[in-house]
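Rotation project, supervised by the postdoc (A.L.). Task for the rotation student: set up a whole-complex structure prediction and record inputs and outputs verbatim in this book. Inputs entered:
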Amino acid sequence: MKFRHKHLLGLEDLTREEIELILENATGFKEIFTRSIKKVPTLRGKTVVNLFYENSTRTRTSFEIAAKRLSADVINFNVSTSSVQKGESLLDTARTIEALGADIIIMRHSCPGAHQLLARHINASFINAGDGPHEHPTQGLLDAFTIKEKLGGFEGLNVVILGDITHSRVARSNIWALTKLGANITIAGPSTLLPKPFEKLGVRISTDLKEAIQNADVINLLRIQLERQRKNLFPSIREYRLLYGLTQERLKWAKKNVLIMHPGPINRGVEISQEVADGKHSVITQQVTNGVAVRMAVLYLLSGGDEA
Amino acid sequence: MKNKESTLVQDEKALDDMIDRMEKAVSEDFKNDPDFVLIGIRTRGVTLAQRLQAMIKARTRKEPPLGILDITLYRDDLSTLAKHPIVRPTTLPFDVDDKKIVLVDDVLYTGRTVRAALDQIVDFGRPALVKLAVLIDRGLREYPIQPDYTGLALETNPRQLVQVRLREIDGDEKVLLLELKG
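Outputs recorded:
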């Protein structure tokens, strides 16, 4: 089947089949990591630009490695030392990058919909690496891939997303992907961080940790995002940890082989204890490896032409 | 492009005979040199290579190692194709350096698939030599690539499609020649 998109802006726009197509290809790409020459010529001569207006270690490096393994030329655009500091607009910056020959632009921006705006004016393909709290599609995909790899499928699986859902693009992308793939989603955390309208997306909402993670197959933990909150939406970090921090003891409430996931970076001792982060249920480091495979699959699928 | 008509050019018995002849030729060539490996090109090249492996083992009591090559990422047409094939893993359970390789595929046409396969193999190491075994050589080469072992040579034109059907994948055994419309 054909991947009919020029851009990857969000998982809300993808069908279940398209998501499954990406995951299927990711398996093939993961095998490349076992080779001694971890490089294939697929995107040779193509220019991929990382345009990150917000900080990132994981995502940006992951995209860079993915593109380089496909033999693309990668440019990491450093916003803090660019003319953006002189007041150059987003559109002008993107136009300049395109004029310099970018084929694919991977962008992270604090404004939801920034990519949509650019996609209307620029010819290059866009990949959304995070647009404010809206979506982070490749994170949603790599989380789904990790679940598929470890648990075989999605139908009827109980997935709990725990933490600051309101400000989380990871939560939103996960919800889109996993509901389309047939999993049961519960979002849990303090009521001040849980958007009630999400019930319309078909997710269950819970403010009680024990009740939320009972029978969970997967618990995806979100970092308490201090930089996004302007108001105190919970009394203190200590109180969050007391009520919602995932410890070894609390893990027993979930299923025996529960998977513990986290998009990173983790706050050790806050949303997740040391033992859980480093324990046998945690697949956090595998998520990072899978991220490269999934991003390779996305770059591959976006790099086609028009011939049948 | 829609299929117009299909002609049976080789039935099950003929196909079996072809593969038999190919195996004999390979075994004869390597009779003093049994340390060779087979690499099948996905998808039907792999099935063929598996059969050859089993037949060689039955005859010589020695089983040549078998590798599986997915050449999708080495194709030369990915930036023009709208529909990308699914990328599947490549598994070569041996070191390519200094190996004698018999590359196996079902149909040899323009030669571009074999070009891609060679480029990919060379990224894994430096083989001692590579020979090519194909079930059907349909001519119309676009690259200077020729088979060392051939089941059958067919004269075809670009408006035709040669379809090899193998029971493990397609449920039956035959070679069809299809006339394409458009």
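Student's summary: The two ends of chain A are 11 Å apart (CA to CA).
Supervisor addendum: Chain A touches chain B through 29 residues (CB under 8 Å).
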